[in-house]
Amino acid sequence: MARIILDGLRKVYPGKPPVVALDALDLTIDDGALVVFVGPSGCGKSTVLRCVAGLERLTSGRVLIGDREVQELPPGKRDVAMVFQNYALYPHLTVYKNLAFPLKERHVPRQRLDAEVRRVAEMLGLTDLLRRRPGQLSGGQRQRVAMGRALVREPLAFLLDEPLSNLDAKLRTQMRTEIAAIHRHLGITSMYVTHDQVEAMTLGQQIVVMREGRLQQAGPPAAVYQEPANLFVAGFLGTPSMNMVAGRVERGVLHAGPLQLVTPGAPDGNVVVGIRPEGLSIASSTDRDGDRTEPIIEVVVAHVEALGYENLVHGIVSGIDDADKLLVFRAPPDVLPQVDDRLHVRVDAAHLLLFDESTEQRVALTGPVLPADDRSASG
Amino acid sequence: MTARNEESSMLLDPLPDGPTDAPRRRLPSPWHFVLLPLSLVMLTPFVWMVVTSVSTTEESRRFPPGLPHSIQWSNFVDVWTGSPFGHWLLNTAIVSVIVVISNLVLCSMAGYAFARLRFRGSNLVFILLLATLMVPFQVVLIPTLLIVKSFGLIDHLSALVVPNLVTAFGVFLMRQFFVSLPPDLEEAGRIDGASRLGVFTKILLPLMGPPLATLATLTFLDIWNDFLWPLVAIQSPQNMTMQLGLSTFQGEHLTAWPLLMAATLMSQLPVIVLFLAAQRVFVRSIASSGIK
What we know:
The complex is a heterodimer of chains A (379) and B (292).
Chain A: E1 4-13, E2 19-29, E3 34-38, H1 45-53, E4 60-65, E5 68-69, E6 80-83, H2 95-105, H3 110-123, H4 139-151, E7 157-161, H5 169-186, E8 189-194, H6 197-203, E9 206-211, E10 214-219, H7 221-226, H8 231-236, E11 243-250, E12 253-256, E13 259-262, E14 269-275, E15 280-282, H9 285-288, E16 296-306, E17 311-320, E18 323-331, E19 342-347, E20 353-356, E21 370-371, H10 375-378
Parallel strand pairs in A: 3-8, 3-9, 6-7, 7-8
Antiparallel strand pairs in A: 1-2, 1-4, 4-5, 9-10, 11-12, 11-14, 12-13, 13-21, 14-20, 15-19, 16-17, 16-19, 17-18
Chain B: H1 3-9, H2 31-53, H3 57-60, H4 74-82, H5 85-116, H6 122-132, H7 137-150, H8 158-161, H9 168-180, H10 183-191, H11 196-207, H12 209-224, H13 228-233, H14 242-247, H15 257-289
Helix pairs in contact in B: 2-15, 4-15, 5-9, 5-12, 9-12, 10-11, 12-15
């Protein structure tokens, strides 16, 4: 087990024009942490993993595993283990021999090898399958063998490259829990690459959001979700994704369509207002009576997705962005609005995020967002 | 068992069982009505060869051909006693085995290099290699002969071995199969601590069963049945291969058909055995590959 330090990683694939897969990536992964790398396809998340594993040569930068600089070492000498998306089990070898392969290559004595293979097989529930070949296993079993092969030699770091993406939804949920359990149990420093947000949010102690080879934000999942560093992170995390509308701050007051809000600390200028679907809710009659201070906007229902456990409402608001704007928000399962219904929607001001329109960075606010009418009351 | 093992043994629940691999029987299809007569047509020359090999010389010249009155096993004895048949068999076996082994080793290594290693000019070299496939052997027969002669190998078994040690077709065939193997396997092997050679011999080659069996069979058939090159390169009877030896049964004025067919039948036996054996390997290799 070891800390992993990525120092100024840069990877350029030669070509015309050259493709910059990674650029100026600095990150420290604590000993025993599970860090999830997430981002759209081609964002360089897999490249990071491959550079740490030694499957790709860095253009520049350093990789430290423990106290050792490893960027010049071949993959076999880095003491890392990797689980591949397609499992990459050796099809001609039995499960036993697949698990034994990394130990055999390291000339582990036969008795210890046998004991280690059986220990891992037992831990992963593979004991009855040791004589089978990968072709005779189900997807979930293959996945477990791949995990076992990575775990058997107790590596310093554990690299997982979209390990669950070939499984069906049910099995994916089960394996997700199992991976979390294994990590809790063994505490091996792990880097996990996925494009699945649910995996990222639920598995990682830290998540790293990447885009076009650059790190966008790293931090605990909840923090990254609630306080995204920029528009990209805000839009990428969350399903359905964050509602975004254009607005303008003038003398500390945000104007965005029907919304007039006091935004302490926001500099004047054009902004993008972000609000997650959970920041909007259908206003109850008491809200409309004016007991609550949160702003209320009127929407016309355009489409409802009934998911059983909740309903996703797509509503049109007039007067934002000089056009009609679609907002998505959640409604409880027993509230099923019909298309063309007019609804009053309460905006939870605490959920509002502001992003600078030109830099796309989040604007840090110095105080709570309040309706402009209440300015005098709050002040 | 240590305390840790006991603790870890119940970490995960068992998963549902994997797919069973019960063999499926193939049902006859309408194609069989086409294939069956075709295979009978293919069998005719073979049957004729067998019949002639146990006939007398007179019977072999009858028209239309028919079954012999009595089976002349003596034809086979005459082949062994009347000609250096054993010698030819041995020569052919030596040449075939060496060429097959060297092709398996060299073509697979070259194929791997063309498929996976990036080196300057690799594509150009590969295209040049492919281009040689389009040149018929008759065109390069004389230059090959001159080269072999300059090495002083004429009328020696090595004249039959050296030019065939590695073939462009073999390299091409191997490369295509290496390209089709997922690179993940190789990367997994390297992370697991195997060297490049280790990955090649322990992971990739075992997966190459079908193409290696194909290459071995094709190379063996090629060398075993080769006539033109041995005819040019070999002169003395003791260095002749089987096909060259068979031609000595054909005189200018008279051909001993029963003897020729008996010798031909014996010369084809290893080929038939190899084909049947290789067929089993094909099926087994494909069944064990088990990769999605």
